Amino acid sequence: MLMLAGSIAALAAADAAIVRDLPPGLHVPEQAIAGPTFDVDRATAAWLDTLSPEQRSLSDAYFEGGYWLRLWHFVYEGLGVLAILLLTGFSRRMRDLAERTSKRPLINVAIYGALFVVATFVLGLPWSIYSGFIREHQYGLSNLSLPAWFGERLIGLALALLLGSVVITLLYAGIRHAGARWWLWATGGAFLLSLFLTMIQPVFVAPLFNDYKPLPEGPTRDALLSLARANEIPTQHLEWFDASKQTTRISANVSGMFGVTRISLNDNLLNRTSLPEIKAVLGHEMGHYVLNHLFKLTVYLSLLYGIAFAAVHVGLEHALARWGARLGLRGRADPAGLPLFVAIFSVVWFVLTPLINTVVRTTETEADAFGLNAAREPQGFAMAAMRLSTYRKLRPGRLEELLFYDHPSGYDRVHRAMIWLKENTPENTPTSPAANPSR
Fold first, then answer.
1. Are strands 212-214 and 238-241 parallel, antiparallel or unpaired?
2. With contact defined as beta carbons under 8 Å apart, do 220 and 270 qualify?
3. Which residues contact 292 (CB under 8 A, 6 or more apart)?
4. pTM of the predicted model, to two decimals?
5. Please, are residues 127 and 4 in contact by the beta-carbon 8 Å criterion?
6. pLDDT tens, position by position, 154-169
7. What's the mean pLDDT in 20-28?
8. HEC string of 349-412?
9. Residue 364 CB contacts under 8 Å (≥ 6 apart), including other chains
């Protein structure tokens, strides 16, 4: 605890020493300006050089450290915390307490689910403090005080209690009634749950963490409304939110489905960037909406959930046959086996991470292409990509990108923006049928 207190006390000084962000406004390198001698590779290199060696080193260190962070998160929370609950018999005692409270399965499983959520929260808290608070401050990415950070964690805990207990209850109801085919029902349930969360998140969840307000009248609002109308996106909810109280990152999103769509941008993007950057970022986010990525990703990830649940079924049956009696577990429908269930799922999901990243990265690449064509702001797009590269490694190797990146790299985004710029300058753009010899 003394070491933790010392680390937290040193964060203010560490934050002050970090010069991470690029200056406000659009700053186009001379070699990236379109003209007769414009060269894509030279323009891309000029954009990459807008990050100082110190900024690039800091970005690489943060992102590469994240590789190990994922591994240790998996070991600590994906396996360690669950092993503690299972091997110490604590999970079994939580089940017994729930059964003493009520003999009805729906109720006692819900009680067990709530106890499980609280137990994993408490046991995982030391890791969460390091990964979500201390490390973010060490790299100058968080603006939250420890009490504010912990307050948001408690809000997340309340949501997890509400949702988690319901999901766990439905899961075990499905296991009791569907038997060995429970994993098929669980896959369908995961699909429906994902759609439900997509619909309620912008309306009921996001406002718990940030204040959302209508975007003020002015050039930015006019430009975004025009961009939205041109791409047939609902425009009645165009908002900004106060993310600067939490982070230094820029972000925006087009969230929700089926009549609850919101176009939102955070105040960091609004206050620290230029209109071309804002249009480029929102063009990308609108691409997700127009290309129906929310629904497509729900389908793709649900298929991967199905693979994971099938693997859990096989692994759980073998584990219960071998160790179930020793651990005091009664069978697959015993909620005390939930730590074992989640641990197997975590292993499978960890193995599937490169495939998950590829699926998400593909949709992000599609949204990039849409955004460039919709907003027609390649320099703004490149500038925004460089801002994101202050905490995302700018130019990874191919295998590195395949394994760890769920978005295109900064280099890839800038390079494609410069290709778009070259192909859309007047001397490279046909202006009449006669300009195209193939017609």
1. antiparallel
2. yes
3. none
4. 0.90
5. no
6. 999 999 999 999 999 9
7. 90
8. HHHCHHHHHHHHHHHHHHHHHHHHHHHCCHHHHHHHHHHHCCCCCCCCCHHHHHHHCCCCCHHH
9. 406, 407, 408
SS (H, E, C) 184-230: HHHHHHHHHHHHHHHHHHHHHHHHHCCCEEECCCCHHHHHHHHHHHH
**Strands across the sheet containing 212-214:** 212-214, 238-241, 262-266, 252-255
Residue 360: both structure tokens together: 């998400």
Structure tokens at 188: 């369908």
Q: At what angle do helices 410-423 and 353-375 cross, to 10 degrees?
A: 30
What residue has token string 């929310």?
A: 294
Tokens of 346: 């975590």
Q: Would you state the torsion angle of the CA atoms of residues 115, 121, 124, 129, taken in this order, to the nearest 10 degrees?
A: -160
Least confident segment among 44-58, 233-247, 325-339, 343-357: 233-247
* 254, 239 contact by CB (below 8 A): no
131 Rama class: left (phi>0) / alpha (psi -120 to 50) / beta: alpha
pLDDT band at 18 (very low <50, low <70, confident <90, very high): low
Buried b (16+ CB within 10 A) or exposed e, 239-266: bbbebbebbbbbebbbbbbeebbbbbbb
- Rounded average pLDDT over 194-203: 86
The amino acid sitting at 439 is R
